[in-house]
Design goal:
This protein is mainly alpha-helical. About 60% of the residues lie in helices and about 10% in strands. The protein is built from five helices and two strands; from the N terminus they run H-H-H-H-E-E-H. The protein has a two-stranded antiparallel ribbon. Helix 3 runs antiparallel to helix 4.
Length: about 170
């Protein structure tokens, strides 16, 4: 009976070891998956399709934290790309100066959209609210969490400035 138990333990250990090795091997060989929700411009796709996709993304929930200033920068860059592209269908058909301007605007759009996508990501944490022993889920975007943290730090700093003796006993 003891020998059968020992064999089953060894078989289970080998199965776990091979499973872990297989997962590690899959992670090493697999390419990092590009976030399908992230909208970025590249040279491999039609410019008109890409610009339409960017304009649609600006009004989506995935980019909810993009600021008015950044949104206007993206719209201005899209307009400049359309002007520089003119009658051409692809970036390669434009002259070198226009191509450089288009690539610079693409880079600007990609940077703004990448930052806005990261800030718009929803993060939920279980927190105990003040005055309660119960934990609740508090969901906020990354940008909302950063703003709340900065506002709390500012409030504490201002309180200590107005009440300098409050921190001492």
């Amino acid at each position: 009976m003891e020998e059968a138990t020992m064999k089953s333990v060894l078989i289970a250990a080998f199965a776990v070891a091979f499973g872990v090795a297989g997962v590690a091997h899959a992670k090493i060989d697999s390419k990092p998956a590009r976030d399908s929700a992230l909208v970025q411009l590249d040279v491999e796709e039609s410019v008109a399709q890409q610009l339409a996709r960017v304009e649609g993304a600006l009004h989506s929930e995935q980019y909810s934290e993009i600021g008015v200033e950044d949104k206007s920068k993206v719209n201005a860059a899209i307009a400049r790309i359309r002007d520089n592209l003119g009658e051409h269908q692809t970036v390669e058909q434009a002259n070198p100066a226009e191509r450089t301007a288009i690539f610079n605007d693409q880079e600007l759009i990609n940077n703004i959209l990448t930052r806005a996508h990261a800030d718009s990501r929803m993060v939920c944490q279980r927190e105990r609210l003040t005055g309660s022993n119960r934990h609740t889920n508090v969901c906020m975007t990354v940008a909302q969490r950063r703003e709340a943290r900065e506002n709390s730090a500012d409030a504490l700093r201002n309180y200590n400035r107005v009440n300098p003796k409050a921190g001492t006993l």
